[in-house]
Amino acid sequence: MPRFSIIVPSHGVAGRLSQALDSVLAQSYGDFELIPVCDAPGSPAADVADTHAGRDSRVASVHSPPSAGLSGARNTGLRAATGAHVLFLDGDDTLAPGALAALDARLTETGDVDVLYFEHERTPWWEGEPTNPAAPLLAKTPAGAFPPSQPPQLTGVQLPAWSAAYRRAFLTDHQLTFPEGPFTDLGWGGLVTLAAERVAVLRSVVVRHLLRRQGSRLNLPGAHHHQLLDQVDMVLTRAAGSELSGALFEQLFAVVLKTASRPERLPSGHRAFFRRAGRLYRSHRPAGFHAPGGSVGVQHRLLASGAYSAFRALRGVNRSASEAAERVPRPRMLRTRLRYARDLRRPLDPNLAVYCAYWGRGYACSPAAIHAKAAELAPHIRSVFLVEPDAVNAVPKGVEHAVIGSRKYWEVLARAKYLVNNANFAEGVVKRRGSVHVQTQHGTPLKKMGVDQSTYPVVAAATGSFAKLLGRVDRWDYNISSNRHSTQMWERAFPGSYEALEYGYPRNDVYYTATADDVARIRRELGVPEGKTAVLYAPTHRDYRAGFDTGLDLEAFCAAAGEDVVVLLRAHYFYDQGRARSSGRIIDVTGHRSSEDVCLAADALVTDYSSIMFDYANLDRPIVVYADDWEVYRETRGVYFDLMEAPPGPVTRTPEELAQVFRERSYANRASTALRAEFRSRFCEFDDGLAAERVVRRVFLGEPPEAVPPVIPLAERVPAPAATLVRS
Question: Which tens digit of pLDDT belongs to each residue from 505-515?
Fold first, then answer.
């Protein structure tokens, strides 16, 4: 049997699970089995686990439903474990390099103790120095193995379950399992302490625990805090008469008092919590127990006597003033600030929705698609699109709009129940209780995004304050995703408490609803000559360059690619200056409002690293990657996967190679088609023409998740036809 079984629950952390598993597989000590516990086969975490299992036979995942909670996941992993010792690792934590070798060496020194406690680092989710909270506690213990009663201050209730290695036979002999409930670590730690006969410590860091930006779920407000008392009651009932009863009593009630002193954690039932805690205190208090001194001792005495009002007067702090200060609106002009503040005091309008795309550049992208579908399915909703002054003329007739910065702009932002954006609303916009913010995103991430940009100096400098960015993320209620890759990367790049809606990108619906007549009309509007092969060239932004450079001599490309080729040039929207660069066989479509129209008009796509490739893949038309500076881009911008290893079509590095692909039509051969098919199966997962309807039904109409239209399988979807090319 292996030396170690490492159990990794993964619910809610699929975006970082690969890092946890990689940290185990990279260990120099290799005698272990790795057991990821996933929600169900086919879940995002299961896909990650299966990928690792395909690379390493020591990985074998098991499944536990989310309804079973963390305790159920760990117990499922325990039943599957066969190793001599068991470790637990949260799905967003990592093992320190050399950790397993250090554990093996220490267990060889101490013998097979029941429990080996070790140090861990608590790492701030983004920045700051890590801390080692277990070090002072473990420093006071004997050098070798010892009974738990010898240093009574060391009990499992002060340490998380993943800060120890457990002898599996010890757990089996005592039938130890994780108790149900959100505070399972507390109950587990107490039960393990009471059952153990020999323990030891390792005074070095084994686990690096990532502190989540949202904080521990256990600290969130809710009725689950009442279950803390269930764990306390269970452990202290088991501890009655034990040498450890005094230490366990004091440490468990330190946790209880911490919760009791924060009324905001219990929006209702705080008095009931306090009274039950007092009854447990009196019934479980060991004989001869002396309360600690100082203010903590006063809290003990008030709890013991059931003096709820006095306890609230001592410890209850009203935080509403500070919360209100954080929510002060920040429009620039005094008169506007006063009006906005006034409107924030008015009731939300339950039938008002506000939309914005690309910081007000116009009626575009997924917000426009949702707007149109809402007009169809939820006509009772008044919809207002926010635009910059120079984009007003581009707003379609019949679409109500507000100019950014105007009085109407701030009024609708203050009163709208629904706010939809593909970027972010202004810094001063307040997230009101009851409002619903929908983040649609505007692409699938190949390049690093959000806080993942922090380690890339050029990008980080241009991004600005990450703290402000995350303040904007905190306003999101829903974040839309078009594939599981995006879901996982958004979780990493924009840590927040929003719900991911894996509905597909609404802006991509048109790729399945447009007809041949629509394609022909768009080509005429763009000026594509009839019968010509329109190649869309869409390079992305380079953070290390100033200004726009096509990176390719397009006239020379047309001449070399063939007489029937014309190029639709679409620069990144950062470079839309309203000046067309059309000439000869080059048609500049950078300023065209709809990138979806441009894609529908194109028979093939040439791009470097632009996210347009993920959207265009829905059309199942040829895609060619022109990667003349991939290594530089990857090092300066950062990427989430190696595009060169998983491209949507042929990869070219020079203008000559690119022209040859078109001249010989190899972009449409069997190998290119196979690459595109694999790419589509991965990145066109949820785009099927019904994304906008799903969003409207779920968000605006309040329909339950199971009532929204299911995703149509990829093989059954029929994309819009190309004008001159036959799709495989």
Answer: 999 999 999 99
